[in-house]
Amino acid sequence: MKVIMAGFGTVGQGVAKVIEEKNSSIKKRLGEGFEIVGVSDSKGAIYNPEGLNLELLLKIKREKGAVISYPDVEKLKSNEELINREADVLIEVTPTDIESGRAVDDILYAFRSKKHVVTSNKGPLTLNFKGLNEEAAKNGCMFYYTATVGGCTRMIDVGRGLSNGAAIISFQGILNGTSNYILSRMTDEEAPYELILREAQQLGYAETDPSHDVDGIDTACKLVILANSVMGLESSLKDVKIEGITGISEDGVKLAKSDGKVIKLIGEIEKSRLEVSPRLVPKGHFLDISGTLNLGLFKTDFAGDIAIMGRGAGQMETASAILGDLNKIISQTR
Amino acid sequence: MKVIMAGFGTVGQGVAKVIEEKNSSIKKRLGEGFEIVGVSDSKGAIYNPEGLNLELLLKIKREKGAVISYPDVEKLKSNEELINREADVLIEVTPTDIESGRAVDDILYAFRSKKHVVTSNKGPLTLNFKGLNEEAAKNGCMFYYTATVGGCTRMIDVGRGLSNGAAIISFQGILNGTSNYILSRMTDEEAPYELILREAQQLGYAETDPSHDVDGIDTACKLVILANSVMGLESSLKDVKIEGITGISEDGVKLAKSDGKVIKLIGEIEKSRLEVSPRLVPKGHFLDISGTLNLGLFKTDFAGDIAIMGRGAGQMETASAILGDLNKIISQTR
Fold first, then answer.
1. Whose CB among A277, A310, A333, B312 lies 3.0–4.6 Å from B151's, allowing a Cys bridge?
2. What pTM value is reported for the model?
3. Within 13 A of B15's CA, how many CA atoms are on the CB side?
4. Residues of B with CB below 8 A from A305's CB?
5. Which of B22, B61, B115, B222 is catalytic?
């Protein structure tokens, strides 16, 4: 199965690594493996219908910083040119961008040229969930985005599986590892937000610009995707009531702690109401997860309450969720 | 889709209730619903190709104690006769029996007469996992048994989903609600095993004969099914090293507690080693779940550690898992 990949940052390189590692066992199990025939990054794109050498590709990206330094392949200028080339699947792993519609256009273009799409990019799904899914269906293409919510916990699949035998009444989740890390450390250290944020940035748990994480936007995007894909809503970002963690003071955390509680950034879906806000959770409650973990709690009519927990982010975790989606495509096209 | 059901105890009646409640929404979503055309219990079987009235069926079972009191239908003497009648799916929900091969024979017979099978019965899967799955494949039939492990948590599906994108290295779980309830209460109350067991029996959390639960056999059966269905092993009950909770003393529980620990009955799979035994778990560790909850923890190579938690048993929870399996069959036969 021929694959092209738009984006070759942390996630894209992770995908190349897992494919390199797992391809022979996938071939053995499913009769067919994956061949990466094209890749792009911000500096340009390359394509070789015979397939790229992944070890070499990773080395060149690491040493030269751009995939166009890969020798003896066709060089292309845009994702659109790349998507135009022959392949079965587009993996869209450019950074999440909820303002421009660039990734939306790339994915729509892929469907129109009859390519299945797998993405970890919350941007296009937040901007145009319905349009993308409709275009996929119209062209007989598969469209998977497991990595967008809760990473390797496969929260979307768990929710869909549940909804097969029960009605999901509500969802509560901790979906952003960065803000959960900051809140956990503020509680443990009784230290102010700014200090813990700087520490998290130094340790690589927070970006240089952490605004989407700490303002609740990242959690809100994930809620929109989950609500639309699992609970059948047609929501968008403007429907989410959002409050982040930047206003939480050292004193607020201490006060909660003295009362046996912790502050958590909770994303909640109930009927058509979507909300992201800091909430008080009793210490030891199972929403009281620490560090960079993610947790999703589905309340259902007949199946009771189901919780799933795991690492929500990380290069190999995200790549593993993408590989799972690729394997779904292979299984269903054979 | 025509369904016959072998067994009409707590689980079977739950299935009738969820089908009654959800059938119209399933028809709307998938274009087809379920018609229960035959049912058996220990006193006999009934069949009506036009379908049974589920409300009446539940009332008759409740008031007369036997489905053969249902009016104006064909009465049959055995499950075999029932399975011989025209239908698309057999739901096998007789009580788990790991000694006799009766349910194995019924399921094999269903496959040979080209019926898909859904079961909540751990017995046949523990006794002859490979033979049943091979016979299903040979006859082009689907075979689902989500309800056998972790009930509504759909632990088998979660494990299979994970293994699509990562290798599962090991599994640890709390898979028996009764023994977990007893251990939790022994810790909270600092009371002896016998006293708490009697209390659990009065509250309906333990059977009159609780031996399979407290001896670890129930957990061992679930481990075998999980190991074979998710991790590709070919294990059977005799491969499991089993120690139950009956030997745990009040003093042992107190000693653990004074050391900040709790005793939990843990089922573990690591490579080809399967083991059920009481283990010390630090208080507050996420294996420290209380009451009748079930929890499964998958350790993977690329997707980190993933935990799933929910109610492992209960009439409607089990029925909901069975309905999920039925919906998988409808989706794949359309």
1. B312
2. 0.94
3. 30
4. 310-311
5. B222
